[in-house]
Specification:
The chain is mainly alpha-helical. It has six helices and two strands; from the N terminus they run ααααββαα.
């Protein structure tokens, strides 16, 4: 349904714009944000699948000593099934099993960023918040403590950016938000 407004003069434009702004302030963006959380999970899965960051740059390969310790060469995949706190397997703690798999399941950092959920759980940070009318935001990330060292790099660990968005995603998100807003305005 198309709505039209006829103005008798430019002096009515500020009132019209104020009305549109008031209508926008009443829109609930929670469902849009929850959909974006799922899209962000898929985007981050693509980083792990391609071993590259948001900028498309390939992650630096693991050092030979890291490959030996982990039992595989897949970047940003720890030891599958490893206990919390990154405890190494030993005779006294045989709980870790080594895997050469590229599959994300069982890898703490990758799982926290690729889980398709709209709620925080474990190490996954997911929030879609509608604080008040016209005030909505989302939070997406990980609570895995070693994530920052890989994201930013250290003296011994090369930077392997694995959290973030690229311009293609941002453009799409802006377009989706605009479409969502226009549909809600049309329905008001």
């Amino acid at each position: 349904m198309t709505k039209s407004v006829t103005l008798d003069g430019l002096e009515q434009l500020p009132s019209l714009m104020a009305g549109i702004e008031a209508d926008i302030d009443q829109i609930n963006y929670t469902s849009l944000l929850e959909n974006e959380l799922i899209r962000l999970s898929e985007l981050h899965k693509s980083y792990f699948d391609s071993s590259s960051g948001p900028d498309g740059q390939a992650w630096a390969p693991n050092a030979p000593s890291t490959v030996k310790q982990k039992g595989h060469s897949v970047v940003l995949r720890g030891i599958q099934g490893q206990r919390q706190q990154n405890v190494k397997a030993s005779r006294r703690r045989p709980g870790a099993r080594f895997s050469r798999s590229r599959e994300i399941a069982g890898f703490r950092l990758a799982t926290s960023l690729t889980a398709k959920t709209t709620q925080s759980f474990g190490d996954a940070i997911r929030e879609a918040i509608q604080e008040q009318p016209g005030m909505a935001y989302l939070t997406f990330g990980t609570d895995v403590p070693y994530s920052i060292y890989n994201q930013m790099g250290t003296e011994r660990i090369p930077a392997r950016p694995h959290i973030g968005i690229n311009s293609t995603y941002l453009d799409g998100m802006v377009e989706r938000a605009a479409d969502y807003t226009i549909k809600r305005l049309a329905a008001a």
